[in-house]
Amino acid sequence: DTAVSQTPKYLVTQMGNDKSIKCEQNLGHDTMYWYKQDSKKFLKIMFSYNNKELIINETVPNRFSPKSPDKAHLNLHINSLELGDSAVYFCASSPRGGGYNEQFFGPGTRLTVL
Amino acid sequence: AQSVTQLGSHVSVSEGALVLLRCNYSSSVPPYLFWYVQYPNQGLQLLLKYTSAATLVKGINGFEAEFKKSETSFHLTKPSAHMSDAAEYFCAVSNQAGTALIFGKGTTLSVSS
Fold first, then answer.
1. How far apart are CA B101 and CA B91, in angstroms?
2. pLDDT of residue A97
3. Taken in order B55, B60, B64, B66, is the CA torsion positive or negative?
4. Checking DSSP bridges between strand A109-113 and strand A10-13, what pairing results, if any?
5. pLDDT for A1 beyond 70
6. Where are the beta strands (DSSP E) in B8-95?
7. Nearest neighbour of A100 by CB, restricted to B42, B94, B99
8. Which phi and psi (to 5°) does residue B39 adopt?
9. Least crowded by CB within 10 Å, which of A65, A83, B44, B68?
10. Hey, which residues 75-94 in chain B have their CB within 8 Å of chain A?
């Protein structure tokens, strides 16, 4: 059983399109996250979310929006895709915030914007 | 603000040699520190974490790290490298609010036979 899963694994699309990446965790965790890994492999938090609070990294463009239909899912919607959005996007989850808990990562979605 | 610095973007060792990957942190509060490994085209897997219990932390696959407050360091070591250890290694610190991990830039470990 995959703990944190993402679909699709690869996503190739044109500039200006709108796309979504889905994330599901079966660990019963309260908190989920989205991270972006750029071409230099640098990882940066985009969002953290539990059923009460969404925390947005202020550097994330508002074209990106997380949507959580339920506690086990946190999808990432991206509007008006740009070349610079090409990256690997990782979903993660943890039991709850607090900083000391391990975050469990999904396998990543490689987004390529042409 | 919390941050981590990984010294050396690329480390090369021979199989059987000691592995030492360096990480220094900056934190205004007692830090929670993590080492993650990323194999090619995969997600991140936790190797070990420091959460203010023992300063010497043992992790998976024979890795360990020692928290040294005086040196603000959390270096990762393994006594004997295996070919399968070749991967990208990330040091991370939890942000002060506990809402995210702040990652270093990563160190690529190469292991030669």
1. 10
2. 67
3. negative
4. parallel
5. no
6. 10-14, 19-26, 33-38, 44-50, 56-58, 64-68, 73-78, 87-94
7. B94
8. -85, 155
9. A83
10. 88, 90, 94
